Amino acid sequence: MVQGPVVSIVVMGVQGVGKTTVGTLLAERLGVPFIDGDRLHPPRNVELMASGRPLTDEDREPWLRLVGQSLADHRATGGLVIVCSALRRSYRDLIRSFDPEVFFVEPYGPMELVADRVRTRTHEYMPPGLLQSQYDTLEPLAADERGLRVSVEPAPEVIVEQVLEHYLPIVQESA
What we know:
The chain is α/β, with parallel strands linked by helices. The chain has one domain: Rossmann fold. 47% of the residues lie in helices and 14% in strands. It has helices at 19-30, 43-50, 57-74, 89-98, 111-119, 131-137, 156-174, and strands at residues 7-11, 34-36, 79-83, 103-108, 147-151. A five-stranded parallel β-sheet has the order 2-3-1-4-5, sandwiched between helices.
C-alpha cells in the first residue's frame, strides 16, 4: 500500500509550451515516474502528425485511453506525472474517467512566443505547421476542472514551484 497521497498529474497543452520539461521536473520533485504521453501514440497517429495532418477525435481516442489507463495503473504505486496534449474538455473527461482525482497542469502562452520556441527545437514527428491547429482546438482548463493554468514565460523551475504551491495542499487534503 502507498504511504501518503497519490500523485496523478497530466501536463497538457499545445506543442512547445514545455510540457516535457515541466512534467519531468514535477515527477522528480514528487518522486514518481514520468511518462511522455507522445510515446503512447499508435504508429498511425505518428505517421499522420509527421505528414502534417492533425489528428481527429477518433484518432486520439485510443491514445487518450492509454493515458488514462497509465494513470490508473500507477495509483497503486504512488502515482505518475504524464504529458498529454489533452486539448479539449472531452479529452480530459475521458482521462478523468480512468482517474477522477487527476490534476491537469496547463502551461499556456501567446502563440507568437510558443511559435518561436517550436521553430528552435527539433521534434521527431510534430511539425511546426500543426501549432495553429492545436491552438484552434485548445479548450483551456475550465474553472470547474481540477487543475491549474500557468504562464510559460517564467523559467521551468519557477513554473514547477507555482504548480506545487497549488497542487500539494489539494492532494494532501484529499489523502
